[in-house]
Amino acid sequence: MNGQEVRRFTGHRNWVRSVAVTPDGRYVVSGSDDKTVRLWDLATGQEVRRFTGHEDCPRTLSERSKP
């Protein structure tokens, strides 16, 4: 690691307050003050899915695979 930006995720309209990486390292989940949770493809930086309808900022995220 040298501090160089590797990937930029563009989409949230406000501060990102929480981030989690899936156990397989393929996706990043982010929660923002824009009251959305977004799922990102780590390899491409593209948004895969957007979860809306939260009444407040999702401040804690955890990802787990199905058993």
What do these coordinates show?
The protein has a domain at 16-51. 0% of the residues lie in helices and 33% in strands. It is built from no helices and four strands. Strands 1-2-3-4 form a four-stranded antiparallel sheet, with no helix packed on it. Strand 3 and strand 4 form a beta hairpin. The radius of gyration is 12 Å and the shape is globular. The model has no long low-confidence stretch (mean pLDDT 85).
Secondary structure elements and pairings:
Elements lengths: L15 E6 L5 E6 L4 E5 L5 E5 L16
Antiparallel strand pairs: 1-2, 2-3, 3-4
What is the helix content?
A: under 10%
Low-confidence stretches: none
Shape: globular
Q: Beta-sheet strand percentage? A: 25-35%
Could you say which structural class the secondary elements and strand pairing correspond to? mainly beta
Mean pLDDT: 85
Mind telling me the C-alpha Rg?
Answer: 12 Å
Main sheet record: 4 strands, antiparallel
Give the SSE order as H and E letters.
EEEE
Total helical elements: 0
Report the count of strand segments.
4
Task: Tell me the distance between the termini.
Answer: 33 Å
Q: Describe the strand arrangement of the main beta sheet, using strand numbers.
A: 1-2-3-4
